[in-house]
Write a structure and sequence with these properties.
The strands form two sheets. A six-stranded mixed β-sheet has the order 2-3-1-4-11-5. The chain contains eight helices and eleven strands. The chain has 215 residues and is α/β, with parallel strands linked by helices. Strand 2 and strand 3 form a beta hairpin. It folds into two domains: 122 residues, Periplasmic binding protein-like II (D-Maltodextrin-Binding Protein, domain 2, 3-Layer(aba) Sandwich), CATH 3.40.190; 86 residues, Periplasmic binding protein-like II (D-Maltodextrin-Binding Protein, domain 2, 3-Layer(aba) Sandwich), CATH 3.40.190. Helix content is 30%, strand content 29%. The structure holds 1-O-pyrophosphono-5-O-phosphono-alpha-D-ribofuranose.
Amino acid sequence: MEEKNFITVALPKGKLFKPSAELLNQIGWTAEGLHEKSRKLIITNESARLKFIITKTADVPTYVEYGAADIGIIGKDVIVESGKDVYELLDLGFGKCHLMMAVPKDKKRPRLEDYAHTRVATKFPRLAENFFAAQGMQMEYIKLNGSIELGPIVGLSESIVDIVETGTTLRENNLEEIVTIMDSTARLIANRVSYKLKFARINSLVDDLAKILSR
Ligand code: PRP
C-alpha cells in the first residue's frame, strides 16, 4: 500500500509550530506551503513521502496515540497532561517553559497549604491535581482553554496553574508565581506501532535531529 511509505507528522499550531518546522526543514523534512499562516490542514510532499498535519496543540498526542500521525512534536507538559500512550523519542530543547502556580500579588497567602480547598483555574487539570494531591491538598479545579490569568483577576478562582515562558503575562496581570510544578521542552514523539513498522525512517530522523541538536 502506498500509504505505508508515507510518514505523517503532526505539528501543533501556536508557539511551537515555527521552531518545529524550521528544525525539520534543516534535515529536508518539509513541504511546499508548510508555514504558520497556512489554512491547509494537510500538506503533502509526494517526492519525500511526507505528510504534515497541523493540529490544535493539545490534540497532537491524540493523533499520535491513535496512529493518525506517525510522529509529532509537542511540549512535555501537553504529553503528560494528555495521559496518552506515545513513545517519546527526543528532547528537542526548544519551547522551554515551566508549569507553575500563581496568585494575585496583593492576595498572597503565607504558605502553600493556605490555599487548600480554594479554586484553581487551569488548562492543565491533571498536572495540577497530581501536584496538589502530592502536597496532600484538595482543590477545586476550573478548566479554562486559554487566557488563564484572567481567572483570579475577575474572581473566578483564587489562583492559576499555567505555563510561564518569559513571565510577561504574569507581570502584566499583577500575578506572582508561588511554586514551580514542572519544567517543559518540546519533544519528538511517535506512535508505538509506527515506530516499529517505519523504524528505518523514524530512527534516521532521530539520528539526524540529534546531530543537529548537539552542534
Ligand atoms: C501561554 C500561557 C501564558 C503565556 C505565558 O499562553 O498560557 O498565558 O503563554 O507566556 P509568557 O510567560 O511569555 O508571557 P498562550 O499564548 O499559548 O495562549 P493561551 O492563553 O490562549 O493558552
